[in-house]
Amino acid sequence: MDCPSEEQMIRMKLDGFKQVKYLDFDIPNRKLEVYHTDDVDEISKAIGQLGLGDSFKDTVDAEPPVGKDEKKQRKILWWVLGINLGFFVVEMATGWISGSMGLIADSLDMLADSIVYGLSLFAIGGGITRKKKVAGISGYFQMGLALLGFVEVLRRFFTESETPLFQWMIVISIFALIGNLISLWLINKTDSKEAHMQASVIFTSNDIIVNGGVILAGVLVYFLDSKWPDLVIGGIVFAIVMRGALRILKLSK
User: Fold this and answer.
1) CB 113 within 8 A of CB 204
2) For residue 178, which of 206, 210, 211, 200 has the smallest C-alpha distance?
């Protein structure tokens, strides 16, 4: 497991297994502990059907861990979701105004994170069928936006187009970077080792890297007086968004 969508895939796959009592994900180490009753073969087979390159290690008698402060975690995830959705709107608007594909692509990356956070929160108390439907709609929507972004990058690549306003690229990305740093601080504040919080740390850390990439592209646009750095970072981030969309779509199957 290397991202929140893979965790979601496993959770949804095992949702109907009454013998599964608790799932303890260790995403950085690509490890999952399943606390269950009855035989493990059916569970192992279901996970194997996802094609994530899993391997069975061992089974021992154990008691599920005591639950954490879920109310606090939910509150923080709502804040992180709000920050991501807010910057999605801001970056999408300023991206079109400034002519920056890097900002537009980064806004879709924020949207991708919002979808994953939203699915995690939506899943609580919701049925598996409804969750899959939402995942499918979200995945296709994200994929459509990413494809439109690729088309626009290609159009600007092969035609004469204005150099983006580097000031907007740098300033807005700095604010987005601050937003992601706040999100990371909030998530780490829970001091939680649970899967969904670890996944949020990974996603937010990746966002910080993307923010830095857009800032660097803005600096290069200024020094080179060229649109190419913006198109390159835009294409890279759109590819990341497309990969995320495909994984989200896999959740709906």
Assistant:
1) yes
2) 211
**In this structure, what are the phi and psi dihedrals at residue 236, rounded to the nearest 5 degrees?**
-65, -45
pLDDT band for position 149 (cuts 50, 70, 90): confident
Map out the domains of the chain with their CATH numbers: 70-251 (1.20.1510)
Burial label for 115, CB within 10 Å (0-12, 13-18, 19+), is: buried
- Tokens 């590819």 label which residue? 239
Half-sphere exposure of 179 (CA within 13 A, CB side): 24
Cα–Cα dist 240/244, whole Å = 6
Q: Is the pLDDT reported for residue 1 higher than 50?
A: no
pLDDT of residue 32: 81
Query: Which pTM does this prediction carry?
Result: 0.67
**Looking at the predicted structure, is the pLDDT value of residue 232 above 90?**
yes
Quote the crossing angle between the two packed helices 228-251 and 128-158, to the nearest 10°: 160
Residue with tokens 């294409």: 235
pLDDT at 228: 93
Tokens of 192: 């939680």
- What is d(CA 82, CA 12) in angstroms, rounded to the nearest whole number? 24
- The SS3 assignment for 199 reads helix
**CA neighbours closer than 13 Å in the CB half-sphere of residue 76:** 20
pLDDT band at 220 (very low <50, low <70, confident <90, very high): very high
H/E stretch holding 246: helix 228-251
Q: Mean pLDDT over all residues of the chain?
A: 80
